[in-house]
Amino acid sequence: MAPKGSQRTVNKIVAENRKARYNYEILDTYEAGLVLTGTEVKALREGKANIAESYASDEGNEIWLINSHLPEYLQANRFNHEPRRRRKLLLSKREINRLRVGINREGMTLVPLKIYFNEKGRAKLELALAKGKKLHDKRETEKERDWNRQKSRLLKSN
């Protein structure tokens, strides 16, 4: 345990899926724990994870994170982990049932938004229940973003 005077990294973001908010309309977010091995946690602490192409799926009574990339920890030798293995997500039964209803009935997807360490130093995943955007919705998002940039430039120059 850390001494009282030491600083801990609180909510340190390790990996972020920045394209998710552009490609999907985020309807609801959940905080999920990750089942990781020791070398995966050490690789996460180095901050080299990638969740850009990953997604979550419902299999049985569990939710799994698929296609996330945690690079091998260099000092681990033969005890290393597989970089693209499937990782189990820790959610309550009620949350899993809500997610399952969203996926099956309403045709939504589970998109990971970011991996971070919470106050206790545990790796957490922010998972979103999202609906895919159509092309015209993406264009509207771009227009809004450009307008906000122009607006801030105009206000800054005055």
From TrEMBL:
The protein's superkingdom reads: Bacteria
Q: Keywords for this entry? A: Cytoplasm, RNA-binding
User: Subcellular localization, per the record?
Assistant: Cytoplasm
One Gene Ontology term of the biological-process aspect is:
trans-translation
One GO term in the molecular function aspect is: RNA binding
**Main subcellular location:** cytoplasm
Q: Where is the composition biased (Basic and acidic residues)?
A: 137-149
One term under GO cellular component = cytosol
Q: Where is this region: Disordered?
A: 134-158
Q: Can you tell me which family this protein belongs to?
A: Belongs to the SmpB family.
What this protein is reported to do is described as:
Required for rescue of stalled ribosomes mediated by trans-translation. Binds to transfer-messenger RNA (tmRNA), required for stable association of tmRNA with ribosomes. tmRNA and SmpB together mimic tRNA shape, replacing the anticodon stem-loop with SmpB. tmRNA is encoded by the ssrA gene; the 2 termini fold to resemble tRNA(Ala) and it encodes a 'tag peptide', a short internal open reading frame. During trans-translation Ala-aminoacylated tmRNA acts like a tRNA, entering the A-site of stalled ribosomes, displacing the stalled mRNA.
The name this protein carries in UniProt is SsrA-binding protein
